[in-house]
């Protein structure tokens, strides 16, 4: 949206140089929110999306844990904490960056008047193919890296919740018949 950067900047300025993220709609379904900021459960490693049909439920500026996919951040913040960690490529890099910033007192805010569109599938079958086909290895590896750094109890996560992810992604592989993507997920893990 033409006013996206301006609105992200206004939110950032209002909240002492905070990292900001826009309301991100699905490009193919412009009334459905893909993300209004996300969170991470530091016990289970689950990504907690704030999304759905836009009924005004996310029309207020508020703090969020993660600015996914679209991040506005001032250079002074990256000078202070550094940029994206090169160990994360194409998944979880935004979460790691926002959590690292939070440790130094820099918050992340959702800016509801900043609008963006993400060319990402809405239907579960296409989304499963996208996750396994393009991101399987990175999702497996990067979730573990992130949780090792930020989890409430990393050992509990590995012993109890990683097996659940292994089953979940195997289920996606069965649905999509993409066992190469599942092997990549196992390799990344």
Offer a few descriptive terms.
single chain, alpha+beta, five-stranded mixed β-sheet, 7 strands, 18% strand, globular
Explain what you see.
- This protein is 47% helix and 18% strand.
- It is an alpha+beta fold and 189 residues long.
- Strands 5-2-1-7-6 form a 5-stranded mixed sheet. Strands 3-4 form a two-stranded antiparallel ribbon.
- β3 (38-40) and β4 (47-49) form a beta hairpin.
- It is globular.
- The model has no long low-confidence stretch (mean pLDDT 95).
Rg over alpha carbons: 17 Å
The 3D shape can be described as globular
Classify the beta-strand content into a percent band. Answer: 15-25%
Helicity level: 40-55%
Strand order of the largest sheet: 5-2-1-7-6
Terminal CA distance: 37 Å
Global mean pLDDT: 95
Q: Could you give a short description of this structure?
A:
The protein is an alpha+beta fold and 189 residues long. Helix content is 47%, strand content 18%. It contains six helices and seven strands, in the order αββββββααβααα.
